[in-house]
Amino acid sequence: MTAFTHLSAAPTRVQRPRGKAISPTEIRLTWRKPLHPNGVLKPYQASCVDIERRGTPQIVTTKDSRTTSAVVGNLIPDTKYQCSVVASTVPVVGKDPAQFQRRSAYSNPISTKAQTPSRVRRPTGKAISSTEIKVKWTKPKHPNGILKPYKVTCFTTSHGGTANSVTTKDNETTSTVVANLIPDTEYQCMVVASTTAAVGQDPAKCESRSALSALIRTLR
């Protein structure tokens, strides 16, 4: 009686994976098993590559062949990635392992979350009229993404805590005039630096606030 051995082959292609950014540096991927394994499946390899730079992809291997999700880390904040999954079977001895692998189509673009910029140093200010204060500051040391225009707010220390705000015209501007203030009144001013939030990300998670300035009194 002759024994016949069923040889392994590459599995059918895994369907396009789905992904979602779970942090500025991580994407969680999910996928389905191949319809036809065509052999003993090995753990999957999931990888993500920067769409613009097309550099070395970040790769993670699942713990076993039953796992159909993975978190790919070490990514760049606020960056678009495309991800894929490689399914493979245990190769036949003496055969090229690449013949037993099949890569999925690439996912739709997935943007990692923006990261909060480092804190702007305490701003300085000077009254230039009875209703205006000129505020100056320096850029955050680490933008951690694409900076939005700054928001500058001056608060009274009396009169029920009235606040007046102004937004700069761009992210290169590091001084502005806050107007419509109360004459002969003490204020403290603050600068908010922020990056552009990814789709579905809470914009407040991308803001950092400076400490309040020293007291600044408007002119009489």
TrEMBL record:
Pfam families: fn3. Residues 1-21 are annotated as: Disordered. It is a single-pass membrane protein. It comes from the Eukaryota. Residues 10-117, 119-214 form the Fibronectin type-III domain. Its main location: membrane. Keywords: ATP-binding, Membrane, Nucleotide-binding, Receptor, Transmembrane, Transmembrane helix. It is found in: Membrane. GO terms for biological process: axon guidance. GO terms for molecular function: ATP binding; transmembrane-ephrin receptor activity. GO terms for cellular component: dendrite; plasma membrane. PANTHER family: EPH RECEPTOR A5, RECEPTOR PROTEIN-TYROSINE KINASE. This is Fibronectin type-III domain-containing protein.
